[in-house]
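Predict the holo structure. Ligand: S-adenosylmethionine.
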Amino acid sequence: MKLIDSFGRKIDYLRISITDHCNLKCYYCTPFSGRSHLERSEILTYEELLNVARAAASSGITKIRVTGGEPLVRKGVVEFCRMLSEIDGLKSLALTTNGVYLGEMAEPLFKAGVRRINISLDTLKPERFEKITGYDWLPRVLAGIRRAEQIGMHPIKINTVVMRGINDDEIEDLARLTREKPYHVRFIELMPTDSSAYGDYKSLYMPVEEIMKKINKIDRAQIGPATDSYGPAKLCKLPGARGKVGFIAPISWHFCGSCNRLRLTAEGKIKTCLFSQEEIDIKTALRSGATQMELINIFQRAVSEKPRRHHLNEKKHQIACRQAMRAIGG
Ligand code: SAM
């Protein structure tokens, strides 16, 4: 079975948020509205998540990414990943993490079938890390990245949200990590979501063209336009580098034409677009004993309702999401 939306896009990728809890308090990601966390009973159980994942795989989803909140804070995540990796039809299992627990969990996760990992890292400076996240755990994150590499996870993608006046002076240093290491270091434009950073959004936002200019100046090397595409990221290489530098620009470039994804929030809502307020409830069906076929029908409905594109770039500085990324599963 294939999931094709109303605009001819093949939908084969599902991002599953397993919790809205996080062990960091990144100020651009923590809800400003002070909304407290979901109650345990509101969050889908692993059994419910697996039922959804099986229905998704039977509908045509071939790639699942586990995210959050911070997925590694939820007890049982390794076993959950193992069960996900055994689902028929799934070809790829990935995970997005802040890396704090990766040192101890990379190996069990690898054994459970997780091969692809994205790690968020906005700075290489310990004090700045503490300022952005609220904790002095940069050494733990760096050790986690090394461990993931040692045990053979690939590709290792490092995601950096660029904020003017906060970490834009580290763009070059972060990009230089790719010289020695086979990492993809990807710079992401800050998105206007519900968070403490929203009030300063206009001054914090740095457009991708400006980020690329800084990369282009490294060692006076002209690295040319980033055209090698890898999902929503455009990739390029520093001369002689082992890894790649990527750019994800949801504000400057929209990549909706090739969007292949759905999101499942920890609360059991399917989001067809990160920036749409529309959500399709799957929890009620799950908790009233829906059959696999009924769950597949909900997926097909979600895909048929997927919008053609978001309009963030037209209303650049307006709040895009009434939720923080932590609540959606970025
Ligand atoms: N805890 C995991 C992590 O840190 O990667 C997964 C969840 S986190 C919400 C996923 C990604 O969303 C992180 O890379 C984070 O930097 C990014 N993110 C959060 N708020 C954002 C915003 N306002 N604009 C751009 N990226 C954002």
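The first helix runs from residue 46 to 59. The chain has a mean pLDDT of 90.
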